[in-house]
Amino acid sequence: MNRILVLYGTGEGQTQKIANTIGDAMRANGLDVDVIQAGHMDPDPDQYAGVIVAASVHAGGYQKPVGEWLRAHVDQLGRMPTAFVSVCLSILSKNEAGRQEAVAIPQRFVDGIQWHPTVVKIVAGALLYTQYNFVTRWIMKRIVASAGGDTDTSRDYEYTDWDDLKAFAGEFGRRIRATAA
Length: 181
Description:
Blueprint: E1 3-8, H1 14-28, E2 32-37, E3 50-56, H2 64-77, E4 82-87, H3 96-113, E5 119-123, E6 126-127, H4 134-146, E7 157-158, H5 162-180
Parallel strand pairs: 1-2, 1-3, 3-4, 4-5
Antiparallel strand pairs: 6-7
Helix pairs in contact: 1-5
């Protein structure tokens, strides 16, 4: 069985784009992939050869439905190849402490659930100033300014490295094929 689940949580939609890109890249390599938003369905991990979970960092944590689904299925996930994709702007921080925090956040999350994904991948997301309300835009500008990032709030910034993400999807797909063989 080469069927893969990509389960995601999203705030403004960038993680949905990331999850869909992972799914499309794996389908292009002949794999059967379901891309499902956490909280909308309760997919059974036992129906898959592998699972990728993607979620975005907001205020140091991830979307609640992602954590709930992981807690409910952590034992099943321990029996198959899994990956956690953490979408986090801090990975681009110009200061070392910010980058270290981008690595620490997903580690604390998976440790708290007692999940041991095969791979943890940190991906830069997007800064969607034009979609934020006034308060969120002001907060994000302050956070980004302290990290040395882009602060022109008249436009959006997409930082996701799509080629790297597709390479990750290809590698995970090869891992699934090797496990199933």
